[in-house]
Amino acid sequence: MDVKSLIAKRVAMELKDGDVVNLGIGLPTLVSNFLPEGVNITLQGENGMLGLGPVKAPGDEDYEVTNAGGFPIESLPGSCYFDSATSFAIIRGGHVDVTVLGALQVDAKGNIASWMVPGKKVPGMGGAMDLVVGAKKVIVAMEHTVKGEPKILEECTYPLTAVGVVKQIITEMGVMDITGEGIVLREIAAGCTVESVQSATGAKLIIPKNLKVMQVD
Amino acid sequence: MDVKSLIAKRVAMELKDGDVVNLGIGLPTLVSNFLPEGVNITLQGENGMLGLGPVKAPGDEDYEVTNAGGFPIESLPGSCYFDSATSFAIIRGGHVDVTVLGALQVDAKGNIASWMVPGKKVPGMGGAMDLVVGAKKVIVAMEHTVKGEPKILEECTYPLTAVGVVKQIITEMGVMDITGEGIVLREIAAGCTVESVQSATGAKLIIPKNLKVMQVD
Amino acid sequence: MNKLTTAEEAVKKVRDGDVLLVGGFLKGGSPETIIKALLETSSAKNLTVVSNDTGTTETNMIKVMQQGRVVKVLATYIGGNPVTGQMLIDDPESVILYPQGTLAEKIRCGGAGIAGFYTPVGVGTVVEKGKEKRVFEGREYLLETGLRGNVAFIKATIADKAGNCYMRGTSKNFNAIMARAADYVIAEARKIVEVGELDPELVTLPGIFVDALVQSEDVL
Amino acid sequence: MNKLTTAEEAVKKVRDGDVLLVGGFLKGGSPETIIKALLETSSAKNLTVVSNDTGTTETNMIKVMQQGRVVKVLATYIGGNPVTGQMLIDDPESVILYPQGTLAEKIRCGGAGIAGFYTPVGVGTVVEKGKEKRVFEGREYLLETGLRGNVAFIKATIADKAGNCYMRGTSKNFNAIMARAADYVIAEARKIVEVGELDPELVTLPGIFVDALVQSEDVL
Questions:
Q1: What are the residue boundaries of the structural domains of chain C, listed by start?
Q2: Which of residues 29-68 of C touch B (CB under 8 A)?
Q3: How crowded is residue D154: how many other Cβ atoms within 10 Å of its Cβ?
Q4: pLDDT for B50-61, tens place per residue?
Q5: Which of B10, B59, C30, C174 has the smallest number of CB atoms closer than 10 Å to its CB?
Q6: Share of chain B above pLDDT 70, in %
Q7: Is residue A158 a contact partner of residue A113, using CB atoms and an 8 Å limit?
Q8: Is there a catalytic annotation at residue B46?
Q9: Please, which pLDDT band fits residue C220 given cuts at 50, 70 and 90?
Q10: How far does B43 lie from chain D, in Å, by closest CA?
Q11: CA C122 – CA D114 distance, rounded (Å)
Q12: What is the CATH number of the domain that holds B188?
C-alpha cells in the first residue's frame, strides 16, 4: 500500500457510523475508499451538498452536481443540496463531525497552517478556515515531512489557517493527539522507532506508556 | 361603500404594477380586492410565502399553506415558499416595496405605534417591527379617529413599533404624506373640510396649494 | 441510520430546565404529536419555550403551560394563547417578546455558529432596552445574539428514515431553522418514506439535523 | 411581468466603477453567457468583482480581467485563475481574500438588511487584521460587515418568465445568495418556462429578486 493510502486507511478507522465528514482535496478524499465494514458516513461538500458519491468518469460531466474541487460527482440516496451561506451555516454551526485535511504545518498548540507559503503564489483559503473552526473534530492527514523537513512543529511559521483547532495528526509514521500538554504519540507505524519519529518531528513528542503499533488492517 | 373598503380602495391606487406588497391583518387585507386594471402585485406573507391568493373557503383547510393570520389560502401561479429566517431576510433586506398596515397612533415624525396599548393585554409585535423598518414604503391604512379621539398625533404616546418609517397615511378623511416639514394633506375626502380634518387630527396639518379631492373611482 | 422512534420515547430527552425550540406558526406546521407526548408522558418542568406564538387555544402547548411546567417564553406574537398572555401580566420577565425577524435570525445564527448580528429592527422601541446600539453607515442597529435550545420539536410533511425532511408550503416557518439550533432534534412527519424516495431537491432540512423521527398523528 | 431580454441588453446596466456579484463555484453554475456579454459588448471598467473564485482558465471572467477592466477582487480561492493571482502579487490591496463561509455570510447579510455579524472564523489569522475582535461566552469572534453589489450575474437551471429560479444541485452555491444582495440582478437560465410551470417547492430564488432574465447559451 502506498503512503497516502496507508494514511487514508488509518484516518478511516477514526470515523464512526453516522458521522458527517468533510474531506479536503488530495489525500483526504481517499479516506472514503477505506471505510470499515458497518461504518456509513455522510460526506459534506462545502460547495453545497450532503451525500457526495464518487467522482464521475470523464465524459459524463454534469457541472450542476460537483464536489468542492469542482469535479462532477455522483449523488447518493438521501443526499441534498443548498446554497453557500447554508453550507457554511452547517459547517460553522458545528454540524460537521469530522473534517480531514492536509497541512503545510501543524504545531503543538493545535495551530494549523495550510493555505499559503510566504513568497509563493497564494491560492486563497477557500473554505478551510471555516471547516477547521467549525468541525467538531479536525484530523490532519499528511505525510510526516516534506523534502525531509518536519511539518509538525513547536510553533507554525507560516500564516495560520486557525488557532488551536487540530485534535489529531495522522501520518505514515504514526497517530498523534494534540493535548493540553503537547503532542502525544498514540500509535507508531511498524518499522518506525520513537527516535526516528521524533527526529522527523519539529516538536517534542510525549510518549505514553501504552504506545501502540499503528494498525491499518 | 363602507369606510374600510373606501380606505382600502384608495390604498390600492398607490400600488404599482410589479410591486411586492405585504398587507397587514384586518383592513389592509382588503386592498387586494381593489387593484386597478393592469396592476399586478405579488403579495408577501411574513410566515414564508410570495404569491398569496385568496383565503380558502371553510372546509378546505390546508394548514401547510396559510397567510400570516394563520388562515389557509390559495397559492397563485409563480408563488414560492421559504422559512421564517429567509422571509425576514426578504423583508429586512428591503425587498418588499410596500407594506400596508393599521396603527393605533401615527405621528408627524413618521413614528408608528401599532402593537400595544399600555395597560391592556399585549399580543406581541409579530412581524410588524420588521415590516415597517424593512419595506421601501410604509402606508398606514386606518380609520382617522378611534371613538372620536385622533390617532394622528404630533407625537405618539403608546410604545412605538418603529421610528420615522411611515411615508403615507390613508384614512376615510384623506391622504396624508409625512415629510420633513410634517404631515401634508395631499387629498381630502369629498364631504370633508380642511377644518373638519384638522379637528379630527392631533397634529398640525400642512395644507398645500394643490390640495385635491380624494378619488376612489 | 434509522431514526424512527415513538414520540413518547423521543420526549424522554427533555430534562427539567431545558430550553425547547418549538416550530410552527399558529396552527401551521405545529409539531402537535410531539407536544402531546410532552403533555401526557413527560414530567419535565421549569421549561423555557421558544416559539413564534406558543400556539392557540386549539393546540397542545397551552395545556403544557396550564400544567405550570413552562416558566419562560420567548416569542413574537402571543395573542392566540391567553395563558402566555397571563404569564406576561403576572411576571413581565417571564415572557420576552422579539420582532419576528429578529427571533428567526437569532435562531438561524444559533445554528450557524454566529454569535451576534446587527439589525435595524427595534431601534427606538422597547426592544432596544439593554442592547448595544451601533451606527453603520449613518444608520442605527441593535446587537442581537444567537439563540440555541436543548431540544427542538419540529414538523415535516414527508421525511425519509435518515431524517431528511420536506416541509411543504408555509410549514417551513420556524421548523426549518429551529432544527439547526438545538442539541437534540425530534421531528414528526405526516408521511415517512425510505431513504432515496425523497427528491433531494425537495429536502428542506437535511437529515443530519434530525435525531429522532416520529410518525405524526396529524391531530390538527 | 416578462423579464426576458438578451444578455447584451442586460449588461448595459453595468457602469464604470460597479461592484459585480458573480455567482458560480469554479465551473459549476457560472453565469458564462452574461460574463461573455460583458466581455464582448460592454465597455464598463474599474470594476470590482465579488466571486468565490473568479473562475478558471476555461471560463470567461479571466478574459474580462485580461482586458484590464477589473481593478479589485473579493474572493475566497483564486488558484484557478492566474490573472487574479498575478493581481494579488502586483498589488496586495487589489485582491481581498475571505474565508468562504465569511464571504457567503457577508453577502447573505447584505441582502438581509443585517449590517454585521460575529464569526469565530479567521481569529488568530491574517483575516482578523483591522477587524473588531469581541468575546462572547469566552470565545473570540470577528466582526464582519454585510456586502452588497450594484449588479449580480447569476445562473439557474430553469426559470419562469417572472424570474423564479430553480438552481439544480450544487449550482445554488453563490448564485442563490448574490441575487438577494444586488441592486440589479441578471439571471441566465438553461431553460425558460411560463409562469406557473415551475413547481413552487423547487424555487431556489423568488422571481422578485430578478430584474433581467436571459437564455443561457450554456457555453460550458
A1: 7-116+145-215
A2: 29, 52-53, 56
A3: 33
A4: 999 999 988 878
A5: B59
A6: 100
A7: yes
A8: yes
A9: low
A10: 11
A11: 13
A12: 3.40.1080.10
Q: How many CB atoms lie within 10 A of CB B171?
A: 26
Q: Which candidate from D109, D113, D118 shows the least CB-CB separation from C115?
A: D118
Total residue count of chain C as it appears in this document: 220
Extract the C-alpha cell encoding D159: 426559470
Beta-ladder partners of D116: D145
Q: How far is the C-alpha of C54 from the C-alpha of C70, rounded, in Å?
A: 11
D chain contacts of residue A138, beta-carbon cutoff 8 Å:
none
**Searching chain D, which residue's CA lies closest to the CA of residue B130?**
D113
Count of structural domains within chain A: 1
**C-alpha cell read off for C213:** 423521527
D7-116+145-215: CATH superfamily? Glutaconate Coenzyme A-transferase (3.40.1080.10)
pLDDT at B17: 96
**Taking the CA atoms of chain A, what radius of gyration do you get in angstroms?**
17
Q: What is the DSSP string of B73-140?
A: EEEEEEEEE--HHHHHHHHHTT--SEEEE--SEEETTS-EE-S--TTSPP---TTHHHHHHHSSEEEE
What does the block give as the cell for C73?
417564553
Query: Whose grid coordinates read 471598467?
Result: D45
The mean pLDDT of C62-78, rounded to a whole number, is 98
Collapse the DSSP code of A129 into the 3-class scheme (helix H, G, I; strand E, B; otherwise coil) and give the result. helix
> What are C184's three cell numbers?
437534540
First to last CA, chain B: 11
Do residues C195 and C165 make contact, with C-beta atoms less than 8 angstroms apart?
no
pLDDT for res A216:
86
| Identity of residue C175 | N
Contact A92, C113 (CB under 8 A): yes
Min Cα separation C205/chain D (Å): 13
Which helix (DSSP H) or strand (DSSP E) does residue C120 occupy?
none
The answer to whether B191 and B215 have CB atoms below 8 angstroms apart is: no
How remote is the C-alpha of D119 from its chain's centroid? 21
